[in-house]
Write a structure and sequence with these properties.
The chain is of the alpha/beta class and about 325 residues long. It is about 40% helix and about 15% strand.
Length: about 325
């Protein structure tokens, strides 16, 4: 199942932007559950019912996304077409309501995913679980599989546009040019707003001045993300939260989808050698696709190719 990029999206920026804003799955009968976490916080999870014996798809969104992102809804629509149940997890603070604690989510936080997997595995022990993640969510899934012993119920995973090397990806987004500035500001505007809201509630946990002044990922991660989550600084956070070094340790079937023209993830940051050396990993890299986009078909009938490929991989 090969990807052919939509010709009417002729460059990586148009592909990426269209993939971010476009939503066209059918109306889905989702319902929300709030799961209380052991540390006093919560996760909001949008669920989709399906056939009792079908695998359950767990979906993780990207940086400052949510369970209502177009690519998440695309996976849920593909799951529904097969009669599979699904659970789209909102990272802390991403469901539309601030989380309770000072801490946020971050690229290397796998504890909440582990909690969700164990909870869903306990609901129906004989049911298979499959994991799908995009961008930051894909990094979390890859790191989870590489550093933890996942329950036997976890049968496979698929990840798209993963920042396997966070330092290189942050430097790409912090680089020169109008496009990098637009992407950077789109994310940092939301992150600064959340950090300042947190600083008002937890003034001892977040330095509001540093959060307000952050204009690069390096500044935000060094001034907010790292101290809030126990890292020595941005470089320490990037090194310890990157999933690339763990690809060789993964022991479940894992599909990696990547595009060489991804404006967020430089091609040289992909863990090619580790992926090709691990027989459990299926690596599919395409010249085009942008970041979390992979739009195919004509403009009057566009298709989210990656979401369909994920379900095809799980069903094999």
């Amino acid at each position: 199942m090969s990807f052919v990029a939509a010709r009417w999206l002729p460059n990586r920026h148009l592909m990426t932007i269209y993939g971010s804003v476009a939503r066209w799955p059918p109306r889905l009968p989702l319902y929300r559950e709030r799961w209380e976490l052991p540390d006093g916080d919560f996760l909001d999870v949008d669920r989709l019912d399906g056939d009792a014996g079908a695998p359950l798809v767990i979906v993780l969104h990207g940086l400052e996304g949510s369970s209502r992102a177009g690519y998440v809804l695309g996976v849920l629509a593909e799951a529904r077409a097969r009669g599979w149940p699904a659970a789209a997890i909102n990272f802390r603070g991403c469901s539309g309501e601030p989380n309770r604690l000072a801490r946020f989510y971050h690229s290397g936080e796998t504890g909440d995913l582990a909690f969700a997997v164990e909870r869903l595995a306990a609901e129906q022990p004989e049911r298979a679980l499959v994991l799908a993640g995009f961008s930051l969510g894909g990094n979390v899934i890859t790191k989870y599989l590489g550093e933890r012993r996942a329950p036997e119920a976890v049968r496979a995973a698929a990840v798209v546009s993963v920042p396997f090397d966070l330092a290189r990806c942050a430097r790409a987004l912090d680089g020169p040019g109008v496009a990098a500035w637009i992407y950077r500001e789109r994310f940092l505007r939301r992150l600064r707003r959340k950090a300042l809201d947190k600083a008002a509630r937890f003034p001892d946990a977040i330095d509001a001045a540093r959060a307000r002044a952050a204009r690069t990922f390096a500044e935000f991660d060094h001034g907010v993300t790292a101290p809030l989550h126990g890292f020595a600084g941005a470089e320490d956070y990037w090194a310890r939260a990157s999933s690339g070094p763990l690809v060789g340790a993964i022991d479940r079937p894992l599909l990696i989808l990547a595009a060489e023209d991804d404006p967020f993830v430089p091609a040289e940051s992909l863990p090619l050698d580790a992926a090709r050396a691990n027989p459990r990993v299926t690596l599919e890299i395409f010249p085009d696709g942008g970041h979390v986009a992979f739009i195919a078909g004509p403009p009057w009938r566009p298709r989210r190719w990656a979401e369909r490929r994920i379900l095809e991989f799980f069903a094999r």
